[in-house]
Design brief:
Blueprint (H helix, E strand, L loop, with lengths): L3 H21 L8 E3 L5 E3 L4 E2 L2 E2 L23 E6 L5 E4 H6 L3 E8 L5 E10 H8 L7 E6 L4 E5 H6 L3 E6 L2 E2 L9 E3 L12 E7 L26
Parallel strand pairs: 5-14
Antiparallel strand pairs: 1-2, 3-4, 5-6, 7-8, 8-11, 9-10, 9-14, 11-12, 11-13
Bound molecules: ligand MTE and molybdenum atom.
Length: 229
């Protein structure tokens, strides 16, 4: 029979060993991941980044000319072509393998709604470093799976180190939000933030995209005029 003092020592030892096992097992290392009841790791949505409050994805509005596009991750390829030295086709895995960037950027639709979010992805400069860009290039066109397209000046993309996001608030971009890629066109109205991007063309001619051809401003600077005059 154990006396009370021995029982207490045994209890403390047992608790200490259990704590050591839990803490050293690695399952508490990443605070972003929780394990659900079926044993799969689930990534938690971020709510703050660099001290700034993020709009929850469920409260972010969404816009699409033809509804949600569902792109198969395994069959997906991003094509980069036109005035480049080496055209490329990148799989989703290849995109994720590039060094990533994470930023706080606000998205403002020209219609007056917007949201604050944290975006993670790969910069166009990183990809252009691999393809090379011809000196005569002036414009980059983004084509999407729903037939949408938009163009931006090469200088704007290069100087602002604009990125293609594959994560939103630390979560893989949901299908309705443009999986696998949305352009994070900082300081430009939402219609420049192409979703479901399948190809990128580098050209030396100005381009008029989907909403731009309906009269919306091609420079699309947030705070500037919505329509071309
Ligand atoms: N492919 C595609 N991209 C698109 C659109 C679209 O209809 N199709 N709508 C644009 C507009 S007008 C806005 S405001 C933003 C909205 O982005 P969100 O749906 O992620 O909020 O997506 C832009 N990108
Ligand atoms: Mo928009």
């Amino acid at each position: 029979m154990l006396n009370a003092k021995k029982q207490k020592v045994l209890l403390i030892r047992t608790v200490s060993i259990l704590l050591f096992l839990i803490l050293s097992s690695g399952c508490l290392e990443d605070p972003q991941e929780i394990v659900n009841t079926s044993g799969e790791a689930t990534v938690l949505e971020a709510s703050v980044f660099e001290g700034k409050t993020l709009t929850p994805i469920s409260e972010q509005r969404n816009n699409a000319i033809k509804g949600t596009q569902y792109i198969d991750r395994d069959a997906y390829e991003l094509r980069i072509y036109g005035l480049v030295d080496s055209p490329m086709s990148l799989s989703y895995e290849q995109l994720l393998a590039y060094p990533s960037d994470t930023r706080f950027v606000r998205m403002d639709c020209v219609e007056g709604w917007g949201f604050d979010a944290m975006w993670t992805g790969v910069t166009l400069n990183t990809l252009f470093n691999d393809t090379g860009v011809n000196d005569s290039a002036t414009t980059v066109i983004f084509y999407s799976a729903d037939g949408y397209s938009t163009g931006l000046e090469l200088d704007y993309l290069v100087e602002n180190d604009i990125m293609l996001a594959y994560k939103l608030n630390n979560v893989t971009l949901p299908a309705d939000r443009g999986f696998p890629l949305q352009l994070v066109a900082e300081d430009k109205y939402g219609y420049k933030w192409a979703k479901w991007i399948t190809s990128i063309e580098v050209t030396d001619e100005p381009y008029v995209g989907y909403w731009e051809s309906a009269g919306y401003s091609n420079s699309a600077d947030v705070g500037g005029p919505a329509f071309e005059r």
